[in-house]
């Protein structure tokens, strides 16, 4: 049953890097000693660290049905303009306790036209803008109703454009109970994972390392710093959307992304 679910999800979302030759990469996927899983909520125009996590995993689970975070990055991110970093925000209808799959975009606000115009002005002279221009224009001409649909559409494209070959699974299509760390452990088990690859910040925010250990899951922490890469405007600005790297560096983006990346195993306190 588990394999049937995974195969079904592959057909729905795509097993990137193998289906379309233009999305294949000559960069070999890093060898893993066992099955590594990472999990994250969908973000709008996610930043570089997000994609390093995906690239270093065997399976990436998109946590698309957890509670919406009003002050998070689910509907906003930063790009770079001639005046410096700029925050792009998708306006949404929000109410207390809603989950991500319940978040609607405020369609009466012309946010998409503004975002596209800003991206076009900021990156029109970027080395690889032309390769992605048509897709970006089409994306911002669509009438998006749901935030999840927009974010997953963007995520699928960026994963393929980077040449990442990680299997992508949506949490909403897995019948997994639990909350917080217990739910993470259950998600990891249902896809056959033995290791959980997490941002180090999670230990202080919400992650119960001892619960993962009791579940037989090795906790691996992401050690990553923003790599220097060519940008259009000085000075260099770290922690921008993946859009900045992809439009400036094209097919070298995945190599650059992995330059300052590592894994630290969280040792047991016992």
Description:
With 270 residues, the protein is an alpha/beta fold. It has one domain. Helix content is 36%, strand content 17%. It has ten helices and ten strands. The chain has a six-stranded mixed sheet with strand order 7-2-1-8-9-10. A two-stranded antiparallel ribbon has the order 3-4. A two-stranded antiparallel ribbon has the order 5-6. The N terminus is likely disordered.
N- and C-termini, Cα separation: 36 Å
Strand order in space, largest sheet: 7-2-1-8-9-10
Q: How many structural domains are formed by the residues?
A: 1
Strand content: 15-25%
Tell me the radius of gyration: 18 Å
Structural class by helix and strand composition:
alpha/beta
Average of the residue pLDDT scores: 86
Q: Strand count, sense and closure of the main sheet? A: 6 strands, mixed
Q: How many DSSP-defined strands?
A: 10
Helix residue percentage: 25-40%
What's the quaternary structure here? single chain
- Taken in chain order, the helices and strands follow as HEHEEEEEHHHEHEHHEHHE
Which shape, going by the Cα principal axes? globular
Model regions low in confidence, pLDDT < 50 over at least 5 residues: 1-33
- Discrete helix count: 10
């Amino acid at each position: 049953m588990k394999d049937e679910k995974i195969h079904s999800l592959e057909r729905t979302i795509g097993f990137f890097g193998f289906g379309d030759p233009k999305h294949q990469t000559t960069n070999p996927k890093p060898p893993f000693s066992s099955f590594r899983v990472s999990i994250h909520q969908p973000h709008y125009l996610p930043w570089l660290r997000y994609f390093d996590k995906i690239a270093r995993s065997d399976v990436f689970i998109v946590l698309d049905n957890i509670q919406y975070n009003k002050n998070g990055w689910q509907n906003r991110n930063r790009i770079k303009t001639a005046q410096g970093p700029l925050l792009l925000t998708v306006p949404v209808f929000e109410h207390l306790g809603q989950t991500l799959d319940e978040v609607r975009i405020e369609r009466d606000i012309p946010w998409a036209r503004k975002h596209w115009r800003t991206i076009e002005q900021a990156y029109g002279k970027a080395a690889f803008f032309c390769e992605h221009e048509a897709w970006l224009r089409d994306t911002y001409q669509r009438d998006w109703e749901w935030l999840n649909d927009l974010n997953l559409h963007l995520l699928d494209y960026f994963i393929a454009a980077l040449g990442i070959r990680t299997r992508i699974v949506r949490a909403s299509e897995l019948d997994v109970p639990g909350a917080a760390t217990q739910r993470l452990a259950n998600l990891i088990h249902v896809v056959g994972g033995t290791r959980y690859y997490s941002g180090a910040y999670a230990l202080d925010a919400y992650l119960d390392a001892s619960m993962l250990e009791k579940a037989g899951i090795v906790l691996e922490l992401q050690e990553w710093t923003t790599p220097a890469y060519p940008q259009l405007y000085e000075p260099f600005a770290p922690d921008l959307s993946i859009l900045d790297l992809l439009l400036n560096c094209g097919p070298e983006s995945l190599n650059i992304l992995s330059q300052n990346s590592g894994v630290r195993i969280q040792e047991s306190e016992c």
